[in-house]
Specification:
With 408 residues, this protein is mostly beta strands. Helices cover 8% and strands 41% of the residues. The chain has three helices and 29 strands. Strands 6-7-8-9-13 form a five-stranded mixed beta sheet, with no helix packed on it. The protein has a four-stranded antiparallel beta sheet with strand order 1-29-28-27. A four-stranded antiparallel beta sheet has the order 2-3-4-5, with no helix packed on it. β7 and β8 form a beta hairpin. The N and C termini lie far apart (47 Å).
Length: 408
């Protein structure tokens, strides 16, 4: 064989070797995460329920971290130092998540059980939102997201009587319409029949959104379509109550979910128009599937897709605050590493920053922690173990569902 001849089999095996090496490197980085910073104790301790990072402009580092808390407040921190900046506490109901706009890193959104989504300017200490997106009178929002172009907001409701809705708004002009309330563009009302617990827009396709519910269904929509029936691209059935959903895979053509009974489902929507099965993996209980002896796993928190390694990872934990990082493959799940010495009790939230391979975590001990590869915490004293009482309530009802999937 000449020096310029190419053996397809050799090239394929070489490519596979490079991919495996990349994955191994990422797994090593994840396992090497150590505490770099921790937030100072708050005067009013609360569970940290959701975390988001501001999106950096071009090559700049993100500046802010926003956290939604069980005391109905949003706290904003400096991203690099975790120094507390300000708090927004004028929420009459329970908060359901926090999200920064992509193009404007000072605009942060929150959804509330009072039937509103609010936008806040984190540069301002005023307790008045710059924009309020109002739902319909009976709406109780328990999930929401904003799409990657910052044009559309979608919120999911709790079931009221027989109604559950995905409510949509036009998010344009958020910084120009202070004190005005925006009415919805419309709703989807036929695709779920119970609480809509999670909503997640596609990372790069602004028209695609996935929703999950206690009815067990995970629905993918193309909101550019004229009506709900046409918009519904696929329905996958988790056979349980959905607690977390996300996108994964090359070009983000896969969706996955975790369930309230710690199950995991993973589907490939690229196979919808083929004869191939769309289910990549289904695990009834991740706790039984992953951890070996002396490595307890009590609950799952969520998942993250690592773009560089093209690899999906799950995050779970123990009641004593250890965090387990779990690698996902079509052949099953495996434990990558365990992060200890940080939280003292259940971890509720996390946010992954691909730019510097760092991880933010928040828990029932009221601590916000920043983890970086091979970091060394400079603080001489660690925060004492803190288990706090919280007013937060589990707002979902787990049902046994025998609903059939529309797409198998």
């Amino acid at each position: 064989m000449g020096c310029c001849d190419k053996d397809p089999g050799f090239l394929a095996s070489l490519g596979t070797a490079f991919e495996m090496a990349a994955v191994e490197k990422v797994e090593e980085q994840l396992a090497s995460l150590r505490i770099a910073k921790r937030s100072a104790p708050s005067e009013e301790p609360a569970y940290l329920l959701d975390i988001d990072l501001s999106r950096p402009a071009q090559s700049e580092n993100s500046r802010f971290v926003a956290v939604s808390c069980s005391n109905k407040s949003i706290r904003v921190y400096n991203r690099e130092t975790l120094h507390f900046l300000r708090e927004y506490s004028s929420h009459p109901g329970v908060l359901s998540g926090v999200r920064f706009a992509r193009a404007c890193d000072n605009a942060v959104f929150s959804a509330c059980s009072d039937g509103t989504v609010k936008c806040w300017d984190v540069r301002s200490a005023t307790q008045k939102p710059v924009q309020v997106f109002s739902g319909y009178p009976s709406n109780v929002f328990i999930s929401f997201d904003i799409n990657c172009s910052d044009l559309i907001i979608c919120a999911g409701t709790e079931k009221v009587e027989q109604d559950t809705f995905l409510v949509f708004w036009d998010a344009r002009g958020i910084t120009d319409c202070a004190s005005s309330a925006k009415e919805p563009l419309g709703v989807y009302s036929e695709s779920h029949n119970d609480d809509i617990t999670k909503i997640c827009f596609h990372p790069v396709e602004p028209n695609l959104v996935v929703s999950g519910s206690t009815d067990g269904l995970v629905n993918v929509f193309d909101i550019n379509k004229d009506n709900e029936d046409d918009a519904l691209i696929s329905t996958c059935n988790s056979d349980s109550s959905v607690s977390f959903i996300g996108w994964s895979g090359r070009d983000y053509k896969q969706v996955y979910c975790l369930t309230h009974d710690e199950g995991f489902c993973w589907w490939d929507t690229a196979q919808l128009d083929t004869e191939e099965p769309i289910t990549l993996l289904r695990v009834l209980d991740v706790r039984d599937s992953v951890c070996a002896e002396n490595q307890n796993l009590h609950y799952m928190v969520g998942g993250l897709y690592h773009e560089k390694a093209e690899k999906l990872f799950l995050i779970g934990g123990t009641s004593t605050g250890n965090i387990h990082l779990i690698s996902c493959g079509t052949d099953g799940l495996s434990l990558v590493g365990t992060l200890g010495g940080g939280h003292s009790t259940t971890v509720r939230s996390f946010c992954w920053n691909l730019a510097d391979e760092s991880l933010l975590t928040g828990g029932e001990d009221a601590q916000l922690l920043l983890w970086k590869p091979r970091a060394v915490e400079r603080s001489l004293t660690k925060k004492a173990s803190l288990k706090i009482a919280s007013s937060v309530q589990k707002r979902v009802r787990v049902h046994n569902s025998s609903l059939k999937s529309r797409k198998k």
